[in-house]
Every structure is written in structure tokens, then in C-alpha cells.
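Intended use. Records such as the Site-specific integrase entry shown here are meant for training and evaluating sequence-to-structure methods. They are not intended to support clinical decisions.
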Amino acid sequence: MAKNKDPLKVAKKQTSNVMKKLNVRSLGTQRNYARSLTLFTQHLNLEKSTSLRNATQSQALQFLTDRAASVGQKQLDMDRQAIQALLQHNGELEASQTLEVIKTEKDEILQSRAYTRNQVELIQESQSDKHSLATRLAETAGLRAHEMGTLLPIEERAPDFREEHSPFRFREQEKWIAYTVVGKGGLCREVRFPQALADELEERRLETPLWQTDRDIPYKTRYDIGFGKQWSDSFSKASNRALGWSNGGHGLRHTYAQQRIDVLMHHCPYKEALKAASQELGHLRPEITLVYLR
């Protein structure tokens, strides 16, 4: 009878074989790359049933997106650099190509907490029209700040399908209007808004798409609404004016997660509710959504 192999030992062996082929001169960088690639290898072996040498750009971005919830920016950048070197070596990336820079969510997650409906209403009343609308959209669909700049009706852009969807996803939102947003790791996912909110959004549709830059990243925006750092700053200032404190706009994702879990558990067990809410939020693993439920 075959013995079960130690996943960590398997990952370390695969990493060691790859590291011999990468042109990394610094001993310190070699150690850092080896640690990052070992974690990535374990992810591939356990989650994707594939090996390091067959890693793809999509799998790399999924791994980094997951890591963004638990590590700081310095470690996340090291992981990205190590995986980028691997993908350039195996031909998945050209020598001049780079992996998308993923921003950490760790600090935001640890510092943010959910808002009540009344608190969100008070914040909105202290914002300009375009930022107030963005706040309602973020609360209703659990959007990240930059995702408001990527909104597009689902008829104009199809979402990605990186995993099997939960049958409980969007339960009690079946008649809502479907849009898509592009989140971390380039994941294009479906989000939904009630008809009245979708109508209000469409009233602010631009005749010609407008390129705008947020945190040095260009976005082709279709709506005259707040997004990115400008919206985040507006939200924090409005929250401080209205409430005397702010948990940041990211706290609206906590609000969404907690409200959706309550709704979904009327239709399915907790584990299934967690999976559905995770997919709605654009998390690729339900464990990450657990942090939002504190």
C-alpha cells in the first residue's frame, strides 16, 4: 500500500529543483524565493492538483490574491517577484512581462469593522452626489474602492468562471440587475443591484468612456461616480464628520459579508452560506471571508 507523502516535503523538493534553474545570485534572495515558491507549490499541489513547473499566470494571481488577506505588502511583493521569476523561466511570461502588483488587504481587514444601515445613511448624507452613490453601490454589493471604476453591465462583459459557482449565490437577489467588476488578480466577477439603484447608476453613464488613474493604475470608467482613493478619502472624511470616527470604506465589505451570511443561512447550512458569500465578494477561498465576520 502506497504511503501518503508529506505535502511540505514534496513542495520543498519541487522548489529545490526549480531554484537550481533560476538565475538568482544573492543568497538572501534565494532563501526568500525558496520560501515563497514552497508556499505556492503547496497551494498548487493541494488546490489545483498540479506542479510548480506547470504553474500559470492565472494560478499565480489567485494565490497572491488569497495571500493579500493575511500578509503585509513587503511579503506579498516578495512572493510576486519569486513567482514572476518562475513564470518567466517556464515561458508562461515573456522576459519583459511582469505580474500584476496585488495590494495587501491585511491592515484594512484588521482595522475595518461593519457599519450599521443607519451609520451608512448618515455618511452618505455628508458626501457629494457621485460619492454618495458609490457608497450605496459599495454597501449593496460589497465592492472594493477601485472596483467602482470598473463597473459594466453583464451584457457588455462576461464574468470569469474560475471555480464552480455555489447554487446559493445571489439568493434573494435573483431579480436584481447584474453587472460585472474587475477585482484583485484581474478576476472579473458578477455583482447585483436592485432596479432602482441600477437606474440611478445608469443615469450617470458617460457618453464616452473616460480613462482615469487611481494609485498609478489606469481605469476605463463608464460612469460618473466616485471610486478608488478619491472615494475612500471622501468616505473617511464624511464618516468622521457624521459619526466622529471612521473604519474606512473597506468596512462596507464587512457589512455586506455579515448581512449576506444572515440572509443565506435561511436557505442553506453555514458552510454553503460562507462559500456563496465568498464568491459574491470575489474571494477565491471561503476562509478569507471569515475575517469579515468578526
